[in-house]
């Protein structure tokens, strides 16, 4: 893949990334990764984020990610898959994805072990109970972590998505519970918090926030 020329988007994303990191610092964060969520945005957005200093991008849709990015060999940044993952999409994603953040069931663990042996993964915990968001109940997380590890996957940590309603504070209890589970299991990554609730996530111990709107603006 040929790197596109620099443009106005590069300056915009760089400035917005500074603002996001200022928000993180104001919330007390000292070592929090920013994962740019580039779903529905063009390839130029991925390159702009990388040029601004981000080492990875996050994609939600398998078909879009493969069509936009190709394989890991063609890009200098890593790709995290952060959308609900269907088992039948793993084969197509395996040459591209560096971290799978939404592992939430044993059948997906088995498919990843088959198609992407040793893959780096996060187990997604469901803290909102909202349909369509994915994730396994927090009480079932330890067993799923054990199953993923036994299958040869590299379990880095946990991921969760805050509730849609109620504002940022509505996410606090769930974020706190996920962070406690990360510590209990001796894991290192805690991926939680997005544009609207990143301060609460940072205060509750997030090590990675996932932001799209804050960097790239509203999606069409």
Q: Approximately how much helix is present in the residues?
A: 25-40%
Give the ordered list of helices and strands. Answer: HEHEHEHEHEEHEHEHEH
Radius of gyration: 17 Å
SS-derived structural category: alpha/beta
Q: Low-confidence runs (pLDDT<50, min 5 residues)?
A: none
Strand content: 15-25%
Mean pLDDT: 96
Quick take:
With 220 residues, the chain is an alpha/beta fold. The chain has nine helices and nine strands.
Can you give a write-up of this model?
This protein is globular. Strands 2, 3, 4, 5, 6, 7 and 8 form a seven-stranded parallel sheet that branches. The longest helix is centred in the N-terminal third of the chain and has 19 residues, at 8-26. Helix 1 (8-26) packs across helix 2. It contains nine helices and nine strands. Helix content is 38%, strand content 18%. The model has no long low-confidence stretch (mean pLDDT 96). It has helices spanning 8-26, 43-51, 62-69, 90-93, 106-115, 141-150, 172-184, 198-203, 213-216, and strands at 33-36, 56-59, 78-81, 99-103, 120-126, 136-137, 154-160, 189-191, 208-211. It has 220 residues and is of the alpha/beta class. The relative contact order is 0.15.
Please describe the structure with a list of short key phrases separated by commas or semicolons.
220 residues; alpha/beta; 7-stranded parallel sheet; globular
Topology:
Elements: H1 8-26, E1 33-36, H2 43-51, E2 56-59, H3 62-69, E3 78-81, H4 90-93, E4 99-103, H5 106-115, E5 120-126, E6 136-137, H6 141-150, E7 154-160, H7 172-184, E8 189-191, H8 198-203, E9 208-211, H9 213-216
Parallel strand pairs: 1-9, 2-3, 3-4, 4-5, 5-6, 5-7, 7-8
Helix pairs in contact: 1-2
């Amino acid at each position: 893949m040929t790197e596109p020329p620099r443009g106005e988007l590069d300056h915009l994303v760089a400035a917005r990334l500074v603002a996001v990191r200022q928000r993180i610092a104001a919330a007390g964060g000292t070592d929090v990764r920013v994962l740019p969520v580039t779903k529905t945005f063009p390839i130029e957005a991925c390159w702009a984020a990388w040029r601004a200093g981000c080492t990875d991008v996050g994609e939600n849709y398998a078909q879009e990610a493969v069509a936009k990015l190709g394989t890991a060999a063609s890009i200098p940044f890593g790709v995290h898959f952060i959308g609900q993952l269907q088992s039948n999409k793993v084969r197509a994603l395996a040459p591209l994805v560096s971290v799978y953040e939404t592992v939430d069931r044993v059948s997906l663990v088995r498919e990843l072990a088959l198609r992407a042996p040793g893959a780096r993964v996060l187990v997604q915990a469901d803290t909102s109970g909202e349909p369509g968001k994915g994730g396994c109940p927090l009480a079932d997380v330890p067993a799923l972590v054990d199953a993923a590890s036994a299958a040869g996957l590299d379990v880095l940590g946990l991921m969760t998505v805050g509730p849609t309603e109620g504002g940022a504070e509505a996410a606090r209890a769930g974020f706190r519970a996920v962070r406690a589970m990360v510590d209990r299991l001796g894991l290192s990554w805690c991926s939680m918090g997005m544009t609207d609730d990143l301060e609460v996530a940072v205060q509750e111990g997030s090590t990675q926030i996932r932001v799209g709107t804050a960097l790239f603006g509203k999606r069409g």
